[in-house]
Design goal:
Number of strands: 8
Number of domains: 1
Strand order of the largest sheet: 2-3-4-7-6-5
Pfam family, one: Pyridox_ox_2
Protein name: Flavin-nucleotide-binding protein
Distance between the termini: 28 Å
Number of helices: 8
CATH architecture: Roll
Organism: Trichoderma harzianum CBS 226.95
Order of helices and strands: EHEEEHHEEHHEHHEH
Shape: globular
Radius of gyration: 22 Å
CATH class: Mainly Beta
CATH topology: Pnp Oxidase, Chain A
InterPro entries: Pyridox_Oxase-rel, Split_barrel_FMN-bd
CATH superfamily: Electron Transport, Fmn-binding Protein, Chain A
Largest sheet: 6 strands, antiparallel, barrel
Amino acid sequence: MGRHTLEYPRTKDNTVRRHNERAIYALETIHKLINSSQLLDVSFNPPDSPFPATLPMIGHMGSFDRPSADLGDPLDLYLHGYVSSRMMNVARATNKDKPEGDDQQQQQQQQQQEQGLPVCVAASHVDALILATSAFNHSYNYRSVVLFGYATLVEDEAEKTYAMELITNGVVPDRWKTSRQPPTKAEMQSTSILKVKITSGSAKFRDGGVSDDKHDLQNEEAQNSVWTGVVPVFSSLGEPVSTTYNKVEVPANVTDFIKDYNNENKEYVLSAIKK
């Protein structure tokens, strides 16, 4: 019997309404897209500003309590940042601020302290430019994901080390153990890790080719004058460039990763056009 596919529950926050036929709630699909994104856009509400803040951050999905968990299991999101960055300070203060206001406000603030800093995390990949007869039917093939959750600072040293290794290996597989070890005390002290407990999430994919309106397909003048089609967009990695002081051959984990990354991205983009 096959394994049951776990999904995030549909809530008012994560339910896809526009083109809901493109919505995906499966944990495995969402977590895979997060882990394949070099940068994540993380949004939060600073208490001293009327504007929400959005920061590009490096992160990876994983489970400290269950290291053997795979992408289809419930996972936490670990985010890497400088110890005194604005977001780290806001997250730190969230757990320490004394609740103020009336009883209801204090209860809400107390609940937020226990849960952490509310955040929204987004990532996206553009896979193709869809060029139709009409400008209004132009589009992208894309993969996008949004996660909602509560962020807290990781205080446990073992979990912090686990998260740093997880994030480093998310850049290039096995990079943690093939880099200089162990980290210095200053390196550990200058780096903070946020752990986001995910409450909900969803993904939205667009694949296929051009979708022209019937009246444009029957418009001979337009068909004779407008080029229509799909322009694939490949995310690819180039040849490694060594430092001037490097004395080591490019390791296999780097060259293999580059080859696999480029092949997988090209294969996905081309197959998505045909769907």
